[in-house]
Amino acid sequence: MTDYISTLNEPQRQAVLHGDGPLIIIAGAGSGKTRVLTYRISHLIEKGVDPFRILSLTFTNKAAGEMRHRIESVVGTEARNIWMGTFHSVFAKILRIEAKALGFTSNFSIYDTDDSKSLLRSIIKEFGLDDKIYRANVVFSRISGAKNRLVGPADYLANPLIQTDDAAARMPEIGRIYKAYTMRCFQANAMDFDDLLFNTNVLFRDHLDILNKYQHKFKHVLVDEFQDTNVSQYLITRKLSAVNQNICVVGDDAQSIYAFRGANIENILNFEKDFPDVRTIKLEQNYRSTKTIVNAANSIIARNRAQLRKSVFTDNEDGTLIEVIKAASDNEEGRLIATSLFEAKMQDGLHNTDFAILYRTNAQSRAFEEALRRLNIKYRIIGGLSFYQRKEIKDLLAYLRFTVNQSDEEAFKRIINLPKRGIGDTTVAKIAVVASENQVPIWEVVSNVNKYVAGRAGIAIEAFADLIKSYQLLLDKKDAYDVAAHVAKTSGILKELYDDKTVEGLSRYENVQALLNSIKEFVDNPDNDDKSLSAFLQVVSLLTSADEKDDDGDNDKVTLMTIHGAKGLEFRNVYIVGLEEDLFPSQMMLESRADLEEERRLFYVAITRAEKKLTVSYADSRYHYGRLKVCEPSRFLMEIDPAFLKVAKTRKAEREESQELKRDTPAGGSMSFVRSLAQKTAKQQAPQPTVAHTPSSDFAPSDTSKLAEGMRVEHLKFGFGLVQKIDQNGNDRKAIIKFETAGEKTLLLSFAKLKIV
DNA sequence: GTGATTCACTTTTTT
DNA sequence: AGTGAATCAC
């Protein structure tokens, strides 16, 4: 029964067997954290704790599902009864039950980020503020940040520090906007993502009876990825476990990568203050990766000033060196990685699932997709534009949301004239004015148009109102799928897509069908006791692209995703690509030192995903906003101890090197490729006569129709090229040029950006 | 009120 | 490059 415990090492065993009382587990990368957590929960259940009384909070829906699955394989179907999910999904559920206490109804809408920003834009416009200064993005992140620190609108306005801060940023009205935003969300019976946590805090603060109920309900509270929780989340868990004191948090400060979203490593310190008799267990042995990978990762994180709380080590084999690949362009980077992947697959007999390609931003995936497709290697992209963010999906969901909740202003704005039914901005504005003059909700005006407005506009509105009313009648009789299918058919959006015979139109049509299928699945799933449309909407609002499963049946695929998305995962071979300054570390992060440390932790996370082999790559140039840009290798490359690196050269570089080796003594071997590259190239190029006719600037446009001597050119796509040369001072210089083919001659036309390497 | 065209902005990561 | 907002012609 409990034989699984014998497979654990000592600290792991102690963490699993720890009885009552607060526990903090500092778990290094690859130290078997998930195993400990699942075994601990299994153990609790075996000892007789009712699964209904265990609350386990994870960072993603996927992680929750996986953990539930693993616990189920130990203790059986009882595992289904555990309260397990993300903070957002669990507390959305509780808020749904307790909505009345806060003045909401249980069918409240959940605004996604687009809804929030759209509402903010409206408010900014209504306030007559300049939307160039008050950018919805910025305002949103300020408000979000405030909410995550539990600063409500009143506190926000009353806080002199915040006010001077906003004034300094020339946005003194943010507090007023925040207040209006909160009001409008309330009137719309809607909560945004941050509200789900903020309002839970309010609920527990103002309704002690409710708090008490849940405090006693949950005998054990467990939190995974504790380093990524924000203050708002921490306070919820602290309150919930205040009575039983059975709180177990698992985290790794070295893997904290969500500070930008309000995550607070301080939570770990606060935890020790708030629970003085806490027991701390450190898991430091890595079972995942080779020594090379573990040590390289350690050498990176050691550069951060933030105090290390542990030392991760491994007894695994040394493993192969980290390969460095240099490419001329992002497209070549794609090809080189795809080729390398293909060769590794053949040589070592691996599957596609053994590989992951990790990048800093979603936009980087393109080159790898193309290259993998060309080699017929199946891949799956995690992240990026989520299925649920597609227009056609949001449109149908908006219909469903509005059917369930007629106060939902954002859903209303989306569907009132979709498909076109002759209700333009003017009419909508008129309705809004009438509603506010009469102090009634918009739906009151829309559903009784005749009472409020006369004239032609009324007819179209009335048709719309009748449509929605007919949907509402279905809500109590039909399940989510039947309502949704009916809405899709009769609202006209399915028909509009069906009539669109373009490729995109077809795929949109299929997407809507896919959404309907997923609603069907939701309804057919015996685990869901509430099959109402309202229940479905609550779940679907909190799904992300990471939760999508691919349905083509073939599971042997290479994984492409951002490093953030890779948290908690592991792969045999990992490629970390796009290691260029300004990209990774991200330019935005270079401004403050603390944030650079977060980027470094991100790199640490990326490295520690690899089990056997790690490859890193960078390109000399890449497309950026549709423009070609010269890139420099990332400082992170130079931060890896060169002893761990092996440099893979382009064929050209290999040829050059072999010639050089005939003359040169092999001084540093493969040491520090990046640093020595410039000098090496300089050595080769120096003997050649330097071009004299461009004295002031190395790449000044000249009237010559040929490339100057001493310039190496890499042809890129679309008539662009990367030119490299060594200037008089021995510096390696690069520039993007544009070629135009005139007859047989290639003309040097213009120069883009110029940078010294 | 609708559709076409131009303009401006984006790009860090995600619940 | 690609999107969404703003502006203009009908």
Automatic annotation (TrEMBL):
**Taxonomic classification:** Bacteria, Pseudomonadati, Bacteroidota, Cytophagia, Cytophagales
Segments forming domain UvrD-like helicase C-terminal: 291-568
Keyword Phosphoprotein attributed: no
Q: What is this protein called?
A: DNA 3'-5' helicase
UniProt xrefs under InterPro entries: DExx_box_DNA_helicase_dom_sf, DNA_helicase_UvrD-like_C, DNA_helicase_UvrD/REP, P-loop_NTPase, UvrD-like_ATP-bd
Q: Which organism is it from?
A: Larkinella humicola
Q: Which SUPFAM superfamilies match?
A: P-loop containing nucleoside triphosphate hydrolases
The molecular function terms in GO held by this entry are: 3'-5' DNA helicase activity; ATP binding; ATP hydrolysis activity; DNA binding
Q: Where do Low complexity bias regions lie?
A: 678-690
Q: Has the keyword Isomerase been applied to this entry?
A: yes
GO cellular component, alphabetical, reads: cytosol; DNA helicase complex
Polar residues: bias regions: 691-704
Task: Please list the reactions this protein catalyses.
Answer: Couples ATP hydrolysis with the unwinding of duplex DNA by translocating in the 3'-5' direction; ATP + H2O = ADP + phosphate + H(+)
